[in-house]
Design brief:
It is built from nine helices and seven strands. With 246 residues, it is of the alpha+beta class. It has two domains: 107 residues, Ubiquitin-like (UB roll) (Roll), CATH 3.10.20; 130 residues, Fumarate Reductase Iron-sulfur Protein, Chain B, domain 2 (Orthogonal Bundle). Strands 2-1-5-3-4 form a five-stranded mixed sheet. A two-stranded antiparallel sheet has the order 6-7. Strand 6 and strand 7 form a beta hairpin. Helix 6 runs antiparallel to helix 7 and helix 6 packs across helix 9. The N terminus is likely disordered.
């Protein structure tokens, strides 16, 4: 942990967002430490300078995604962002994620992000019961590979914060819900494929994507929502032409 390490006397210039929608960047001076992460910096400020600073974290090892914030203008997992890699970028500026309501300081309201999953038909609908035989799914099939490419999303909302279309069009479903819809469309066990396609085919769905690829660029686990959204567009076109599968 950052405050347990021995430093060399250097100090970091840090600016942290304090307040809600209306607030300001407050300056802090934080000791520089070896192998220091941005989450270490925020934790040090909370422990030593601003005990009322609100922020989220859980695992600290890049598994939960709850520590996502905007660092120097880019959405990142702060537990995996080392301060040393940001050298030369000036003061360390830490803000909440974009495109989400701000509850306080670095904490955002994730409800609008999660509600989009429901609007995109993100709930799996089973076609069988536990008493039915398991469907045979070939691991190297085209549909299974499509599912595997997008299934590791952990709802950290980094892609949502990175997406300019979300900022321009608040009704847009966004990269993560559309990526989830793509995994369901390709899952032969999902019994609501047509409904899912209906949900993502409207004006706020996949056709609103401008393919700027920010979601894919910033995804901490290497998912490419842009590719999933392109797949949904192809599936909708094939359905329109009466050609069936994705």
């Amino acid at each position: 942990m950052a405050d347990a390490a021995v430093g060399d006397g250097r100090m970091l210039d840090v600016r942290i967002w304090r307040g809600r929608e209306q607030g300001e960047l407050v300056p802090y001076r934080v000791p520089a430490r070896a192998n220091q992460t941005v989450l270490d910096v925020v934790s040090w400020v909370q422990r030593h300078l601003a005990p009322d600073l609100a922020y989220r974290f859980a695992c600290r090892v890049g598994v939960c995604g709850s520590c996502a914030m905007t660092v120097n203008g880019r959405p990142r997992w702060t537990c995996r962002t080392h301060v040393g890699r940001l050298a030369g970028e000036g003061p360390l500026v830490i803000e909440p994620l974009r495109n989400l309501p701000r509850i306080r300081d670095l904490v955002c309201d994730l409800d609008p992000f999660l509600e989009r999953w429901q609007r995109a038909g993100g709930r799996f609908v089973a076609t069988s019961t536990r008493r039915d035989p398991l469907p045979r799914i070939t691991p190297d099939s085209r549909s299974r590979r499509a599912v595997d490419a997008g299934i590791e999303c952990i709802n950290c909302a980094v892609c949502h914060a990175a997406c300019d279309v979300v900022a321009w069009r608040p009704e847009y479903l966004g990269p993560a819900p559309l990526n989830r819809a793509w995994t369901l469309v390709n899952d032969i066990r999902h019994g609501a494929r047509e409904e899912t396609l209906d949900r993502v085919g409207g004006d706020a769905g996949c056709h609103a994507c401008h393919s700027q690829t920010s979601c894919s660029e910033f995804c901490p686990v290497g998912i490419a929502p842009t590719a999933a959204i392109a797949g949904l567009k192809r599936s909708l076109l094939r359905r329109l032409l009466g050609r069936g599968a994705p």
